[in-house]
Amino acid sequence: EVQVIQSGADVGKPGASVRISCKITGYTFTDLYIHWVQQAPGKGLEWVGLFDPNNDETEYSARFQGRVAMTADTSMDTAYLELINMRSEDTAVYYCAAAPPLEWLSSTLDYWGQGTPILVSA
Amino acid sequence: ENVLTQSPGTLSLSPGEGVTLSCRASQSVTSKYLAWYQQRPGQAPRLLIFGASHRAAGIPDRFSGSGSGTDFTLTISRLEPEDFAVYYCQQYGRSSSHSFGQGTKLEIK
């Protein structure tokens, strides 16, 4: 059974950075694409970007380019999303989701983590 | 940018009824790159349909997807209490930025 386990809730000040982790079990980590999805309070889903742990290739949504960084530690089967220079509008739940590639830099989002709430507050 | 617009925003229905949700794209979407997700309150989303019409593993057959080009639909034949949730369509081709529609909320009448 594939499990996607995210780190817990976090708080950061405006201008600071926070890092969220996402551990995958039950599947070969480098055979998956890792997606990140933002959900602001009471709002819909917004795709942040995609990370390929096989070669560290990334694809960011234009809205999040330069404001987030996606990385991974393949020895730990864990992906990371860093929120950089945070603003109040970054307050949201961030989901990690994974799936085998459909084609280059494209996949569905088959396996979801439980979500990580991030609060940006002074 | 290819924008997905879902309608209606909210639907009030009773268990046992059938429903069809709409997802319209501003430009044509290749069918194999269109998915539907369900998000129950307080839960993570889950994949229902991929490739416009293929049910994901474990999804009941009362859920079905169809469509092509710019118009796609998700049909639930007989609503169960656990189906009252928010539904999102998503395009996931390489050039689509994996964008989501804004969602349709099904609520109990």
Question: What is the global morphology of chain A?
Answer: globular
Question: Can you tell me the residue ranges of chain A where pLDDT is under 50 for at least 5 consecutive residues?
Answer: none
Task: Count the beta strands of chain B.
Answer: 9
Number of helices of chain A: 0
Relative strand content of chain B: over 45%
Query: What share of the residues of chain A lie within helices?
Result: under 10%
Distance between the termini of chain B: 36 Å
Chain-averaged pLDDT of chain A: 97
Order of helices and strands of chain B: EEEEEEEEE
Radius of gyration of chain B: 13 Å
Give the strand content of chain A: over 45%
The oligomerization state is heterodimer
- Strand arrangement, major sheet of chain B: 2-9-8-4-5-6
Largest sheet of chain B: 6 strands, mixed
| Biggest contact | A-B, 25 and 24 residues
Helices, strands, pairings?
The complex is a heterodimer of chains A (122) and B (109).
Chain A: E1 3-6, E2 10-12, E3 18-25, E4 33-39, E5 46-52, E6 57-60, E7 68-73, E8 78-83, E9 92-99, E10 111-112, E11 116-120
Parallel strand pairs in A: 2-11
Antiparallel strand pairs in A: 1-3, 3-8, 4-5, 4-9, 5-6, 7-8, 9-10, 9-11
Chain B: E1 4-7, E2 10-13, E3 19-29, E4 34-39, E5 46-50, E6 54-55, E7 63-76, E8 86-91, E9 104-108
How would you describe this protein?
The complex is a heterodimer of chains A (122) and B (109). Chain A is mostly beta strands and 122 residues long. Chain A is built from no helices and eleven strands. Chain A has strands at residues 3-6, 10-12, 18-25, 33-39, 46-52, 57-60, 68-73, 78-83, 92-99, 111-112, 116-120. The termini of chain A are far apart. In chain B, the strands form two sheets. In chain B, strands 2-9-8-4-5-6 form a six-stranded mixed sheet, with no helix packed on it. In chain B, a hairpin with a 3-residue loop joins strand 5 and strand 6 (54-55). The model of chain B has no long low-confidence stretch (mean pLDDT 95). With 109 residues, chain B is an all-beta fold. The chains are: A mainly beta (122), B mainly beta (109). Chains A and B meet through strand 5 of A and strand 4, strand 5 and strand 8 of B.
